[in-house]
Amino acid sequence: MTTSSIKANIRCDIQKVWETILAVENYHTWRSDVDRIEVIDEKRFITYTGDGYSTTFTVTVAEPFERWELDVENSDIKGHWAVVLASRGGETEINFTASSAAKKLLTRPIGKSVFEKVYLDKEQTRFIVDLKKVLG
Question: What is the mean pLDDT of the chain?
Fold first, then answer.
């Protein structure tokens, strides 16, 4: 399993950041990688890309205005996301740590870990960039 962390400051109060992140039913309006959402129940939802590729999320921790953790799974990976928020005056610091393990790769461990690292970096960066745009 590979783990990656990204930290960013968002020029927005922590309450608005928290509300935006947790309003998963609206992800298709601001996340560039999400075309539609299927909310299963209060703890599970599925995101779909424009070509129908699905990823299932299961909320494991929700501490208001502090921490949101989810198990993540699709046909290629299985992992865990942890989003930690901290208020810094009028800004919010977001620390996003994600772990994933490739499910299908039959290559040597080094090839598998490179795939996992590239996947995580892409997903984390896109999430932060999209979040900054919607809250900007």
Answer: 91
